[in-house]
Amino acid sequence: MNHDFLIDILQALSELGIFGIALGLMIEIIPSEVVLAYGGFLIYSEQIGFIPALIAGVVGGTLAQLFLYWLGIYGGRPFFEKWGKYLFIHETHLQASEKWFVKYGNVVIFTARFIPIVRHAISIPAGICKMKFSLFLIYTIAAMIPWTILFLLVGMELGTHWNQIESVGIKYIKPIALMATGVILTYLLYHLFKNRTKSQ
Question: How many domains are there within the chain?
Answer without folding.
Answer: 1
